[in-house]
Amino acid sequence: SGVGDDTMFVLSILRDSVRVAPETFDRDLLEVLAEELDKKYANKVLPELGLCICTYDFKDVEDAVIYPSDGAAHHKVVFRMLMFRPFVGEVVVGTIIASNEDGIQVSLDFFDDMFIPSYCLPQPAEYDPRAKLWVWRFDEGEEGGVFTLHEQIRCRVDSITYTSITNTDKGRQATKTSTENSATAAKLTPMQTSSSAPDAEVPLVRQRSTSVDLSADDTSKDPPAMHIKGSVNDDGLGLVIWNWE
Questions:
Q1: Quick check: 115 and 227 in contact, CB under 8 A?
Q2: DSSP secondary structure letters along 198-233
Q3: How far is residue 220's CA from residue 212's CA, in Å, rounded to a whole number?
Q4: Are residues 203 and 186 in contact, defined by beta-carbon separation less than 8 angstroms?
Q5: What is the DSSP letter of 167?
Q6: Strand 6-20 and strand 45-46: pairing?
Q7: Is 11 helix (H, G, I), strand (E, B) or coil?
Q8: Closest listed residue to residue 164, CA positions, set 81, 44, 53, 55
Q9: What is the pLDDT of residues 223-237, one digit of tens each?
Q10: Residues in contact with 212: Cβ distance below 8 Å, sequence separation at least 6, in sequence order
Q11: For the whole model, what pTM was predicted?
Q12: 192 falls in which pLDDT band (50, 70, 90)?
């Protein structure tokens, strides 16, 4: 379910048990429960659900169970968590925060793991190694637009990848689950009917899962728990200052 006009944000129903310390018994219970849940979940990625932002509200709070050895109150709760989870095909606006010969990194304010590969830029595009910027040359080699750092960019979500890392007998394993565009377009699916452009065609999506052995390379960083691949090679996409209208 969408929240407001931002379809990037959804509400997910979660269940958990929350420990309420004795020194907080004099405070509002729901306030304490929300604080404890936010400590646990805020900025955490839940595979398939997205990035947790904050506790939204409570659907059910069971009576407390107090264990003699603890003294704290333990409540089983059902609550709604505000999640950041754009859908594949959604158009978002972010800020360019880095560029290299592979493409452009985009920040969505609180989420920095969005990347636009070079082949998803408007063509012909080339990388200027001195300026460390990508340039779109759309008219006989002239500069059509420079993807300058800190500029706002309008891009489409082409894929979302969730990665979970586990330690096994064989070493550290990363399991990646990706949802991505297929080559064809189709009618809106129920998940996508909250789009601000309900009459637009939305590409079909497909899901695939792969496993990667991380133990072979100790120097590499762990992949992000959530990664978005974007594109700007379509009409109406690109720097906001280009003002396609």
A1: yes
A2: TTS-EEEEEEEEEEEE-TT-TTSPPPPSEEEEEE--
A3: 13
A4: yes
A5: E
A6: unpaired
A7: strand
A8: 44
A9: 778 889 999 988 888
A10: 173, 174, 175, 176, 223
A11: 0.71
A12: very low
